[in-house]
Amino acid sequence: MHAARFLDTNILLYAYDLDAGIKRERALEIVEQGWKQLGQTAVSVQVLQELHVNMERRGIPRLEIHQLVRDYTLWPVVDNTLSLLQGGIAEQSRWQLSLWDSMILAAARASGASQLITEDFSHGQDYGGIKAINPFV
């Protein structure tokens, strides 16, 4: 797998949040780019799980959520594996991140991406070859 970028959950959530204003517009541009350049934007099983949980909390019907998750399986998806967990633990120690954020970073690394599109990491920081980009800055 060699994607150019990896999307964190928050980007997907903003793309479907009608109340997110300018963040929604920017997130939609990023998601649309992912569909136009199929194979260049990756997500992980963790991202899809978080998307599901957060959309369910917002009252989106499960059938709609299930279809949305199925749609994103057309993108490169990094599976949750023991190897990914071990990589996440190593990222956590190296960068002093939460386990969840370190798992996102490990998944981005596993996807081959050089960009992590997120608002949860330090914008512009290079995490050992993966640059965090906050598209809302």
CATH topology: Rossmann fold
Query: Beta-strand percentage?
Result: 5-15%
Integer count of domains:
1
In the CATH scheme, the class would be: Alpha Beta
What is the CA–CA distance across the termini?
A: 29 Å
A few lines on this structure:
By secondary structure, the protein is an alpha/beta fold. The protein has helices at residues 9-15, 22-36, 45-57, 62-72, 82-95, 99-111, and strands at 5-7, 41-44, 77-78, 115-117, 131-133. It contains six helices and five strands; from the N terminus they run βααβααβααββ.
Word description of this protein:
- This protein has 137 residues and is of the alpha/beta class.
- The chain has one domain: 3-Layer(aba) Sandwich (Rossmann fold), CATH 3.40.50.
- The chain has helices at residues 9-15, 22-36, 45-57, 62-72, 82-95, 99-111; strands at 5-7, 41-44, 77-78, 115-117, 131-133.
- It has a five-stranded parallel sheet, sandwiched between helices.
- Helix 1 crosses helix 2, helix 1 (9-15) packs across helix 3 (45-57) and helix 5 (82-95) crosses helix 6 (99-111).
- The longest helix is centred in the N-terminal third of the chain and has 15 residues, at 22-36.
